[in-house]
């Protein structure tokens, strides 16, 4: 699932292509929206909220989408051949005389009054890349359940909006704790929150995530996707194991030497996750 900085960048590109322009094409290819016609309306604003995308249109309506694991929005010049996937995967086409935005494999696509956006994003915690970022509230939510493993808390969008599995693993490494460390045992949780904010801010204007400072392929992460390889800091083999409730567990990566705290037995053969780039 894309991290919050990826969604922020997607919103920026959609904003540049669509905002303050009238829609000449508005094709919403889901049964619930098949009869909706937004052509002739002006896109007033595009913004991200955590991992959610909100496209506001004249008439005080908002097109809401969430990419989950496989969705994407592609922006290209009007009239160009679509290149993000086969046509049957397209769920939305929004365009003007200059640019077109194509939504592929969107698992969530709905239209709602702008005044009711809280129905889809009101449950979220402070947005790490939002204009209304509130660090104190983020820390308060993080420490509210002291017995919870910090990795699970970081992934909970009700605590912090924008962190995914990549940053969960990398932030825990950078703070020297395992993802299974209870929140109560996390030293200076405000520093963890501040680090999360800095990390997403540093990556929001580029494709992919870099936490090591090294942008070369294969060197961008400390532990994420590195199972079976030597830790870049100490040389110990990086390991991985599932974390999370049944049906929602994600492979989590950590270093047995550089990170302190509880952890399960490493998975014997940990699959390397697909590229997030």
UniProtKB/TrEMBL annotation:
The record's annotation in PROSITE patterns points to:
FPG_CAT, ZF_FPG_2
Q: Does the keyword Cell wall biogenesis/degradation apply?
A: no
Pfam families, from UniProt?
Fapy_DNA_glyco (PF01149), H2TH (PF06831)
Q: For the Formamidopyrimidine-DNA glycosylase catalytic domain, which residue ranges apply?
A: 2-101
**Name of the featured protein:** DNA-(apurinic or apyrimidinic site) lyase
| Keyword line | DNA damage, DNA repair, DNA-binding, Glycosidase, Hydrolase, Lyase, Metal-binding, Multifunctional enzyme, Zinc, Zinc-finger
An example Gene Ontology molecular-function term: damaged DNA binding
Task: Note the Gene3D superfamilies from the entry.
Answer: 1.10.8.50, MutM-like, N-terminal
Q: What is its EC number?
A: 4.2.99.18
Sorted alphabetically, which PANTHER family does this protein's record hold? ENDONUCLEASE 8
The residues that cross the membrane are: none
Cited SMART domains: Fapy_DNA_glyco (SM00898), H2TH (SM01232)
Top EC group: lyase
Q: What SUPFAM superfamilies does this protein's entry cite?
A: Glucocorticoid receptor-like (DNA-binding domain), N-terminal domain of MutM-like DNA repair proteins, S13-like H2TH domain
Span of domain FPG-type: 222-260
Q: Name one GO biological process term.
A: base-excision repair
Q: What family does this belong to? A: Belongs to the FPG family.
């Amino acid at each position: 699932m894309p991290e919050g900085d990826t969604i922020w960048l997607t919103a920026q590109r959609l904003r540049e292509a669509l905002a303050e322009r009238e829609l000449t094409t508005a094709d919403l290819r889901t049964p619930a929206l098949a009869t909706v016609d937004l052509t002739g309306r002006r896109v007033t604003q595009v913004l991200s909220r955590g991992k959610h995308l909100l496209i506001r249109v004249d008439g005080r309506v908002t097109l809401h989408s969430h990419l989950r694991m496989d969705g994407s929005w592609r922006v290209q010049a009007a009239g160009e051949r679509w290149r993000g996937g086969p046509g049957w995967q397209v769920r939305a086409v929004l365009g003007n005389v200059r640019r077109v935005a194509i939504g592929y494999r969107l698992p969530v696509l709905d239209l709602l009054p702008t005044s009711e956006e809280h129905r889809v994003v009101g449950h979220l915690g402070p947005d790490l890349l939002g204009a209304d970022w509130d660090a104190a509230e983020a820390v308060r939510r993080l420490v509210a359940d002291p017995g919870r493993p910090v990795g699970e808390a970081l992934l909970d969008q009700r605590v912090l909006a924008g962190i995914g599995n990549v940053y969960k693993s990398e932030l825990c490494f950078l703070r020297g704790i395992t993802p299974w460390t209870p929140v109560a045992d996390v030293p200076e949780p405000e520093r963890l929150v501040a680090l999360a904010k800095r990390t997403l801010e540093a990556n929001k204007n580029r494709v992919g995530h870099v936490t090591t400072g090294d942008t070369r392929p294969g060197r961008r992460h400390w532990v994420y996707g590195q199972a079976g390889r030597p830790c870049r800091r100490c040389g110990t083999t990086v390991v991985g194991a599932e974390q999370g409730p049944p049906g929602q567990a994600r492979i989590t990566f950590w270093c047995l030497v550089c990170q302190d705290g509880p952890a399960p037995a490493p998975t014997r053969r940990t699959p390397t996750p697909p590229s997030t780039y």
